[in-house]
Automatic annotation (TrEMBL), chains A, B:
NCBIfam families: TransRegFnrLRhodb. This is CRP/FNR family transcriptional regulator. PROSITE patterns: CNMP_BINDING_3, HTH_CRP_1, HTH_CRP_2. Residues 21-138 form the Cyclic nucleotide-binding domain. InterPro entries: cNMP-bd_dom, cNMP-bd_dom_sf, Env_Response_Regulators, HTH_CRP, RmlC-like_jellyroll, Tscrpt_reg_HTH_Crp-type_CS, WH-like_DNA-bd_sf, WH_DNA-bd_sf. GO terms for molecular function: DNA binding; DNA-binding transcription factor activity. GO terms for cellular component: cytosol. Keywords: DNA-binding, Transcription, Transcription regulation. Residues 152-230 form the HTH crp-type domain. The keyword Kinase does not apply.
Amino acid sequence: MHEIELSHVDCADCPIRHRAVCSRCETDELEQLEEIKYYRTFEAGQTIAWTGDKLDFVATIVSGIATLSQTLEDGRTQMVGLLLPSDFMGRPGREMATYDVTATTEVVMCCFRRRPFEDLMRNTPHIAQRLLEMTLDELDAAREWMLLLGRKTAREKIASLLAIIARRDASLRHTGNSDVLEFDLPLTREAMADYLGLTLETVSRQVSALRREGVIELAGKRHVSVPDFDRLMLETGDDTDGGFLV
Amino acid sequence: MHEIELSHVDCADCPIRHRAVCSRCETDELEQLEEIKYYRTFEAGQTIAWTGDKLDFVATIVSGIATLSQTLEDGRTQMVGLLLPSDFMGRPGREMATYDVTATTEVVMCCFRRRPFEDLMRNTPHIAQRLLEMTLDELDAAREWMLLLGRKTAREKIASLLAIIARRDASLRHTGNSDVLEFDLPLTREAMADYLGLTLETVSRQVSALRREGVIELAGKRHVSVPDFDRLMLETGDDTDGGFLV
DNA sequence: CGAGGCATTGACTTGGTTCAAGAGGCGTGG
DNA sequence: CCACGCCTCTTGAACCAAGTCAATGCCTCG
């Protein structure tokens, strides 16, 4: 995966094409995209854009994880978005970055120069339609996060984050739900704290508490396994699901 | 305003047409919208939809204020959106409401039956384009709110809310910024608390503190005047100039 | 006048932060 | 190979901002 051929990957072979902004495109539309696209790689820890920077491209994350965050003048920072493979970065029609974008792991992006992309969008409703859908999904996710930030306890926040990562990880490599969920945390304690609106000490304490009580097991600092997913879900404070039970 | 003719208002005479989802529509497109639209009024305090309800319309707020909120099983609730005149409610392509929608004041909505609206959207890029733009704006607003919920102190939260309402109010009745800003709070203390991720007691205390220190003045419980807007902005914790959201 | 909603204020508790010390890993270079 | 510095993470103790519980004030409306 680190050896991706940056010079050119054919859209037809793209691993995340079916979920990305281009998922609805017909062959001729893909050809047009193919012409204006180029790949870029960012190393783990590298900043992709600072708030206020001129951004003359938009992009789809091909692999890796990036974060969007905002900072108050005195340095308090809040992560406001997590960009995963197939997610879209940048806003058509806007020149400046409005968030700090940082590569958490190594990130490969499929970039489109902004102007040509905007032109293309005007003529190909399939792109705009898909982008609308993705934006609506992100809005839902942001609002779910608002509930977490505003009303959940530290323990619930941690459990929620673990549940989300576990679920995404499971769906990504669709193992026909094996009994034990396992995954690596893609975030440092500090990044988790910035995401959850906590301090890194509180994150550490709550992770330890969940481990002590057997809700999760840790191998090293980052590798988590969840013996009983329902148990974890109980700790999130969320509805047990669609509504029945309780 | 309370005497709006519910039977029919011509789109051409609509007070919020230039900002709403239909703002880009040509005359013929407006005619099509005109055919599937109808007005509805909700009283202050009335619930417009509960999470999980089947919703067979989408709508534009014509006047009044509605809120979107989410609730955990034990009753903790977080407001996740404020719908103001010209804002859009509902998600094309989705049958169910995903939030509780409540009228805070009397609300007049311009409704479109969902199916016909979806069909129309497919054929009129102007509507989809505008909806995308509005959704992106809402996403930005939601993310700004995440920063507030995750990282601001109670005092900063209150100051931020007051600043937002003040600014919106000023822009709405574009008084060429007169020296003293004045407005009515459209929310109860409890609603403010639900918006800010606080308890109503804390809201009350912080409002009192800001009044005691002369940052704001109160006439009654709800009428606020701001003698020095910059002073208020200092209390928000934000960058001294940034600040978007309506 | 009394009832019922909102709002304020006080006294006390607590969850989470802050400050501080130290543990465990990992790469570099002597 | 070990020593060293650099990270990230954990843990403890003291503190404080905001929550909880409870009493009271102030409207408006019947």
